[in-house]
Design brief:
Layout lengths: L4 E3 L8 H16 L7 E4 L1 H10 L6 H16 L12 E7 L10 E4 L5 H5 L3 H22 L4 H15 L9 H19 L7 H15 L3 H10 L7 E7 L10 E8 L6 E9 L5 H4 L5 E2 L8 H18 L3 E8 L2 E9 L4 H13 L5 H6 L3 H7 L3 E2 L9 E2 L1 E4 L2 E7 L2 H9 L4 E5 L7 H6 L2 E4 L7 H9 L2 E4 L5 E3 L4 E3 L5 E3 L3 E5 L4 E4 L4 E2 L2 H7 L11 H16 L3 E5 L3 H9 L5 E4 L10 H9 L2 H26 L4 E5 L12 H13 L6 H13 L11 H6 L3 H18 L5 E6 L5 H22 L7 E5 L2 H5 L1 H7 L2 E4 L1 H9 L3 H14 L16 H15 L4 E4 L7 H9 L4 E4 L4 H13 L7
Parallel strand pairs: 14-15, 15-16, 16-17, 24-25, 24-31, 25-26, 26-27, 27-28, 28-29, 29-30, 30-31
Antiparallel strand pairs: 1-2, 2-5, 3-4, 3-5, 6-7, 6-9, 7-8, 9-10, 11-23, 12-22, 13-17, 14-21, 18-19, 19-20, 21-22
Helix pairs in contact: 5-7, 6-7, 12-14, 12-19, 14-34, 19-34, 20-22, 21-22, 22-26, 23-24, 26-27, 27-29, 29-32, 33-34
This protein binds adenosine-5'-diphosphate and magnesium ion (MG) (2 copies).
């Protein structure tokens, strides 16, 4: 029988799919014997029924009633009972934590009568009305949909009238007045009364959580994070504990390690006499967690103990919410905490050192995306100038952009191509689209656990928070900073997420220490090296030790080849030859194209030959001892001719001036017109060129072979491979290969030593993938050109589709990510698998790699590993990322070390 409700005592952390992360971890803490207020969780399955049918499952109401009475029994209090009522919170929580879901409603069960029961003694009166005030406000905005700003306005108005700065100073009379005004507000705005029946409050709050799954912000977040839309959320109903109960009460958040750097210690914020979100909302200044020791020493000691236990239980950094009610500690949430890339590498290494996890597990916990972040530039030494503000460096990185003061402006300007920094006093979930659009978030209030900090870290955005010298004036669209500097909207500022400093203007960027480490060849760093470099080195070593796939680079010049090698490339997977036809060589290429007859063409090709040979010598030298896959010319020849319009204009001008147009121009224009293609991507290019333009293949192959001979004579170990692009049928490859053999034979004879280069083909047309078995008979290796293969499989001309309508496709969820970014496993991936299987069946020792941009994309690297490829090839800068991900992919083969 399907159950829709689980008591905390019935769940555990392994049930996150069903109970959501929050519900599962609460159950886990109960299982560990930690002090958790009792409660139960409604499953994601109930939500899925609701999403599918518009109604909760029929059994749900009954199950909730049963669990509620068990809760009432256990606590000895009843929901809605007038004297000392049971109050509960209704909390949302899916498999993945998601900003944008309905916010938690606290203090459910209060109404005009039970508030009197809760406040029965004079010292509880203020507390009771404060709680009721919170319920009406939260319920009114999140469940009944009244704009939360209206409640804030009322609150601010009363505070102003009574001359108090923060909520905790309001007395009972003022709170009673606020509650009444709130209720009026709800009536005015919705035509409904605030519901007095606690059971109705509970029911409606639960349904509102379900409904919020499809809220705009939640959907935006899921799209960004590639979270499936049909998972649904769980709802946790939990007995209230009260941090708003005077000076020995309060609420706080804690991290078992510093989520920004990974260092161990006590990190967190605490706010006394506060409930729920107060601590992260920035309404009052929080104190560091250690300050809890004074007013509540026993709770503080206990908390530290629980933190240690949780960290060793979860074997990872934990993020914790707790409340102290009159000196007594209650645990309200834990989860494995989000962290910066720097902290991720650091913590993984530390936990491995401590013997808590294996190195394999450590590798699993870092990512190529994180490594890319560590490799991103920071502000260079030139950042010496005066900072206009200094805040808490909550999420690292270097960002430059125009200051903007609300989410709407951030979105508008960034859509117009401008880089922006969102500056707020503090952020709320409403700022999310602005945070997505901005390069960085800068706030004047809140600590490392504030909304801005947590969300920015999750998105990998730069964040500096709590820059208290700033006075942010969103209405005046400016902020004032140290020394009275006023910064207006649109002014460019630089935000340093490593140091927390903010500067005027655009500070120049410099390479990160991690890039410096790779540039130095990835040698073991000394003790004096920066911590992140040492962390990266260890994990790279681990990745290299376990990965099965090789990593090569796409490089066309000796400089790129050398850099790729320093970054750990094991060869070149794609050396394009087209740039060798550009620049000052262009006249020679034009001569080749315009040649009348073989003799003229041979002459032009003959002039190109020594230049190409020199190019190859340089690259083979830089990659000595490692394979270099050289692709024969791919783009259509007209790409090497001048622009048609420019030529036509030049000729027309000459004619208009009465002169005779340049003969060569006329000839060029005729050639351009002759060779014009409606759809060059599918025109005369790749292997087709080689078969149609006599002598072209021979010249290129001769240049390669002669370069090999030169390098050998110099004592080198050149390993050139020849790759034929855009093959659709084995017949094309067979013809080219004959030519290659002939040339290699000739060069061998001239050199007096055998020059052998493996010949292979790119697989970048569906027909090639589908006939890979035949093609493999003529190919010694395959290299998937996944850019063209994606274009030709989808029928997308990349240049035409990406800018034109991909954003619409992504918005509508046609695909969660561009297939040019991450390999489309179902379609293009299927072709890859077919070609691998059939190619290897025909030729068991067939070497197979990939040289499209996907070779440097983490997700795609995992796919290529699964598909059995021998190597991936990517741009030099992404080589370390591919190495790391190839290592992580190999871990999935044998899940040891868990
Ligand atoms: P979020 O998912 O946004 O973190 P939570 O469900 O954790 O939302 O709740 C918001 C705030 O309310 C948190 O600070 C949490 O600790 C607090 N809270 C939730 N339930 C209770 C409860 N039963 N008693 C006291 N505080 C609670
Ligand atoms: Mg929480
Ligand atoms: Mg291609």
């Amino acid at each position: 029988m399907v159950r829709y409700v689980y008591d905390f005592s019935e769940g555990g952390r392994d049930m996150a799919d069903l109970l959501g992360g929050k519900g599962a971890n609460l159950a886990e803490m109960v299982r560990m014997g930690l002090p958790v207020p009792p409660g139960f969780t409604i499953t994601t399955e109930a939500c899925r029924v609701f999403l599918a049918t518009g109604e909760p499952p029929a059994e749900l109401a009954g199950e909730v009633a049963t669990h509620l009475s068990a809760l009432e029994q256990a606590t000895g209090r009843r929901l809605g009972q007038v004297d000392d009522p049971l109050l509960v919170s209704v909390r949302s929580g899916g498999r993945f934590s998601m900003p944008g879901m309905m916010e938690t409603v606290l203090d459910i069960g209060l109404n005009d009568l039970s508030v009197l029961g809760l406040g029965k003694s004079p010292e509880r009166e203020r507390f009771a009305w404060d709680s009721y005030r919170r319920l009406v406000q939260m319920f009114g905005s999140t469940v009944m949909g009244v704009d939360s700003a209206l409640f804030e306005d009322v609150l601010a108005g009363v505070k102003r009238q009574s001359g108090v700065e923060d909520d905790s100073r309001l007395d009972s009379c003022e709170l009673i007045r606020i509650v009444e005004t709130f209720k009026d507000l709800i009536r005015e705005r919705t035509g409904e009364e605030f519901p007095q029946d606690p059971a109705e409050q509970l029911r409606r709050a639960v349904l509102a959580v379900f409904t919020s799954w499809n809220g705009e912000r939640a959907r935006l977040y899921r799209r960004r994070e590639h979270i499936a839309d049909d998972l649904g959320t769980a709802v946790t109903v939990q007995t209230m504990v009260f941090g708003n109960h005077g000076a020995d009460s309060g609420s706080g958040v804690a991290f078992t390690r510093d989520p920004a750097t990974g260092r161990t210690g006590v990190y967190g914020d605490y706010l006394s006499d506060a409930q729920g979100e107060d601590v992260v909302a920035g309404i009052r200044d929080t104190v560091p967690l250690t300050d809890l020791e004074g007013p509540a020493p026993a709770a503080y000691e206990q908390l530290r103990g629980h933190m240690r236990r949780l960290e060793s239980h979860y074997r990872d950094l934990c993020d914790i919410e707790f409340t102290v009610e009159r000196g007594r500690l209650w645990m309200l949430q834990t989860r494995v905490g989000k962290r910066t890339a720097q902290a991720a590498f650091n913590i993984a290494g530390q936990l491995a050192d401590e013997g808590v996890i294996t190195m394999a597990e450590a590798l699993r916990r870092v990512s190529g995306e994180g490594l890319a972040r560590l490799m991103s530039p920071r502000f260079g030494a030139a950042a010496e100038g005066d900072a206009i503000a200094r805040g808490i460096p909550a999420s690292p990185g270097a960002a430059v952009g125009a200051a903007v003061f609300d989410a709407g402006e951030a979105v508008r300007r960034s859509a117009a191509g401008e880089q922006v920094v969102l500056v707020r006093q503090e952020t709320t979930p409403d700022d999310l689209p602005g945070m997505v659009a901005a390069q960085a978030v800068l706030t004047s209030r809140g600590g490392k656990t504030s909304h801005a900090a947590v969300v920015a870290r999750g998105m990998g955005k730069v964040c500096v928070c709590g820059a208290s010298e700033l006075t942010v004036d969103p209405a005046g669209r400016c902020f004032t900073a140290l020394g009275g500097v006023t910064v207006r909207e649109g002014t460019v500022i630089s935000v340093d997420g490593f140091t927390g400093e903010v500067r005027l203007g655009s500070v120049p960027l410099a390479d990160s220490a991690v890039v410096g480490y790779f540039e130095g060849g990835g040698r073991a760093p000394g003790d004096g090296a920066q911590q992140d470099v040492r962390d990266v080195h260890r994990l790279m070593e681990q990745a290299d030790a376990v990965r099965r796939m090789e990593v090569r680079a796409n490089a066309d010049t000796p400089e790129d080849a050398a850099r790729a090698r320093r970054f750990g490339a094991q060869g070149i997977g794609l050396c394009r030859t087209e740039h060798m036809f550009l620049g000052e060589r262009r006249p020679l290429v034009e001569a080749m194209i315009l040649a009348h007859g073989d003799a003229e063409r041979q002459e032009a090709l003959g002039a190109l030959l020594p230049m190409q040979r020199e190019d190859f010598i340089g690259i083979l030298e830089a990659m000595d001892g490692l394979p270099v896959t050289i692709r024969l010319l791919d783009p259509p020849l007209h790409e090497f001719l001048p622009d048609r319009t420019a030529l036509a204009v030049r000729i027309a001008r000459e004619e208009a001036l009465g002169g005779a147009p340049d003969a060569r121009d006329a000839e060029l224009l005729a050639a351009v017109e002759r060779m014009h293609e409606e759809n060059p991507m599918l025109g005369l290019r790749g292997v087709r060129l080689g078969l149609v333009v006599p002598g072209l293949v021979a010249m290129q192959v001769r240049a390669v072979a002669e370069a090999v001979v030169v390098r050998r004579k110099a004592g080198g170990d050149p390993r050139a491979e020849i790759m034929v692009p855009l093959v659709g049928t084995v017949e094309e490859l067979r013809l080219v290969r004959e030519e290659v053999r002939r040339v290699l034979g000739a060069v061998s004879a001239e050199a007096g030593a055998a020059v052998a280069c493996p010949v292979g083909t790119m697989i970048e047309l569906p027909r090639a993938a589908l006939t890979a078995g035949r093609i493999a008979r003529e190919a010694e290796f395959f290299s998937f050109g996944t850019n063209d293969l994606t274009q030709t499989t989808w029928g997308f001309s990349r240049d035409d589709v990406e800018a034109a309508f991909f954003s619409v496709y992504l918005d509508k969820g046609v695909f969660p990510v561009s297939p040019f970014e991450t390999i489309d496993r179902e379609g293009v991936g299927r072709l890859v698998r077919i070609a691998v299987a059939e190619g290897r069946a025909a030729r068991p020792d067939l070497k197979i790699g990939v040289c499209g941009e996907h070779g440097g994309d983490p997700e795609s690297v995992h796919f290529f590993h699964e598909a059995g490829l021998d190597y991936v090839s990517c741009s030099p800068f992404r080589v370390p990322i591919a190495r790391l991900e190839a290592g992580r992919a190999a871990l999935d083969d044998h899940r040891e070390g868990n």
